[in-house]
Design brief:
Elements (H helix, E strand, L loop, with lengths): L2 H13 L6 H28 L13 H4 L8 H17 L8 H11 L9 H12 L6 H17 L13 H11 L7 E3 L6 H13 L4 H9 L1 E5 L2 H13 L8 E3 L16 E6 L24 H12 E12 H5 L3 H12 E9 L12 E8 L5 E6 L21 H7 L13 E5 H6 L19 H31 L1
Parallel strand pairs: 1-2, 1-4, 2-3, 4-5, 6-8
Antiparallel strand pairs: 5-7, 6-7, 8-9
Length: 485
């Protein structure tokens, strides 16, 4: 059975259960089952390759002990075991075993996990399907990783769960342009389901990872922070499916909760690639962690302030920000002034409003900058929906190949050879300063539609209204005459 067929069969079984409601709950349920099966498969491999390896999960709670037998525990007994024994232990699991990081990871994943299924018989059917997958088989894991990415994509339409997911066409393009290398410290401060990091992993494996040492250097240099339980669990599973042996670099935390001044050189990284949450507000007191000139409740602004501090000299970043950051004033103006003074904001790619639909329908932008030298000019590039398509949607989403024209225009490693086109234009820093750092610049090459002279249009409208009134009067007269006959 193929990975896609197996997942579809599992979803069909879950739809029969009264306890599972919607895509987000189905994926969450599927995720902890996958996670336990993957951990057990890994444990069995480590028991062979490492002397004295000991799983952090007690033997009677390991997947192979209670789930592997298709004729094993089921019905109410299975539900009681999972809800009353398995989950309570994993949520409070002691940090022991030969790999304490694995114990910590398991405990964090299950801290807010929940068994939504109410039927022990249906749950046994799901478990039996999961048993058919060998996560130690590289081909199976790769195929399953691809299917899992599609499941994550479905989150985009799952209400508020859409905030956890950035379209892979966008993440792929940003990673391709930022070009991370093995050994460079790479950080996503609001990792969601892990899309930017998994795109970075694929990018480095395709271009730069040639040896085991390269792979080890890459895995050791990844950093990801996510504060919410559901995306954290989805992210950990995503990393395991992408062949990450120890995803303990994924931390469950709130990046903004740590005081700004406490971030020092030891926390700085070479690459930041992320889509920080925006449009929302942080809890009371978070803004007090930041310098007075940057205090705000808007999360995107706080993250932008932090990015400048977290980048090493010479470090580079690719981030998603809303239109509001580009034209906003007050704190936003001070942030942009600092950004352009400390970093070279060399490129802004302007995206259409439909990229993040249906979760959000606001204008967004991709900002690319490097720390260490001030901005002298900014290149803007207007990304357009493909010809013959009015907007991006769930059925016709943005894909990485849709950025091919931008990639061709981009230029070499130093972005040499750029030229103005119908979609690209250059703005020198003095013009930005004259605009009080308003970066909401429209494409000057777009010719506004000629709707005619306003006075003539108004006269035509008035004449049309008089003609319509005359026709109404004639119709009333005809009807009145007909009624008198």
């Amino acid at each position: 059975m193929s990975a896609r067929t197996a997942v579809k069969a599992i979803q069909d079984i879950m739809r029969k259960d009264v306890g599972v409601d919607g895509d987000a709950q189905r994926l969450s349920q599927l995720c902890w089952l996958f996670f336990l099966k993957i951990i057990d498969d890994q444990d069995q491999a480590l028991e062979i390759t490492e002397d004295n390896y000991r799983s952090p999960i007690p033997e009677h709670l390991q997947w192979r002990s209670w789930a592997a037998d298709e004729e094993g525990i089921t019905g109410d007994g299975l539900l009681e075991f999972i809800n009353q024994e398995l989950f309570p232990y994993l949520k409070e699991m002691p940090l022991k075993g030969s790999h304490p990081n694995r114990a910590q990871m398991v405990r964090e994943v299950f801290a807010d996990a929940y068994n939504y299924m109410k039927s022990g018989q249906l749950l046994r059917q799901v478990i039996n399907k999961v048993n058919g997958i060998d996560f130690n088989n590289l081909a199976d894991r790769k195929h399953f990783g691809d299917v899992y990415e599609q499941l994550l994509n479905d989150l985009q339409s799952a209400g508020n769960a859409g905030e956890y997911y950035t379209p892979r066409g966008v993440t792929g393009f940003m990673v391709d342009r930022i070009d991370p290398r093995p050994g460079e410290l790479l950080l996503d401060t609001s990792g969601g389901t892990g899309g930017f990091v998994t795109c970075s992993i694929r990018h480095m494996r395709e271009r730069y990872v040639k040896t085991l040492a390269d792979e080890q250097a890459m895995q050791a240099s990844l950093r990801l922070i996510e504060k919410k339980p559901i995306p954290y669990m989805l992210c950990i599973t995503n990393m395991l499916l992408h062949g990450i042996e120890d995803p303990s670099f994924v931390r469950r935390d709130n990046t903004l909760a740590r005081p700004y001044r406490d971030y020092g050189p030891a926390d700085q990284v070479n690459v930041i690639v992320t889509n920080p949450p925006f449009g929302g507000q942080e809890e009371d007191g978070i803004q007090d962690n930041f310098p007075a000139q940057f205090r705000t409740r808007e999360t995107a602004d706080l993250f932008l302030a932090l990015f400048m501090r977290l980048l090493k000299p010479g470090g580079r970043a690719a981030i998603v920000l809303p239109d509001g950051t580009l034209f906003g004033e007050g704190v936003k103006t001070r942030l942009k002034e600092r950004l352009l003074a400390e970093c070279n904001l060399h490129t802004i790619v302007r995206l259409p409003n439909s990229v993040f639909r249906p979760y959000a329908s606001i204008g967004t932008n991709l900002l690319f900058f490097e720390k260490g030298s001030p901005t002298q000019e900014i290149w803007f590039y207007e990304h357009r929906v493909p010809e013959g398509q009015k907007a991006y949607s769930m059925t016709r989403p943005i894909k990485q190949e849709h950025f091919a024209d931008c990639v061709a225009w981009w230029g070499g490693p130093s972005r040499e050879g750029r030229a103005e086109t119908e979609q690209a234009w250059r703005v020198p820093i003095d013009q930005i300063q004259e605009r009080n750092y308003n970066l909401d610049l429209k494409n000057p090459h777009t010719v506004a539609a000629d709707h005619g002279d306003p006075d003539e249009l108004l006269a035509d409208l008035q004449a049309a209204e008089l003609k319509a009134a005359d026709l109404r009067d004639q119709l009333k007269a005809i009807l009145a005459e007909a009624l008198l006959r």
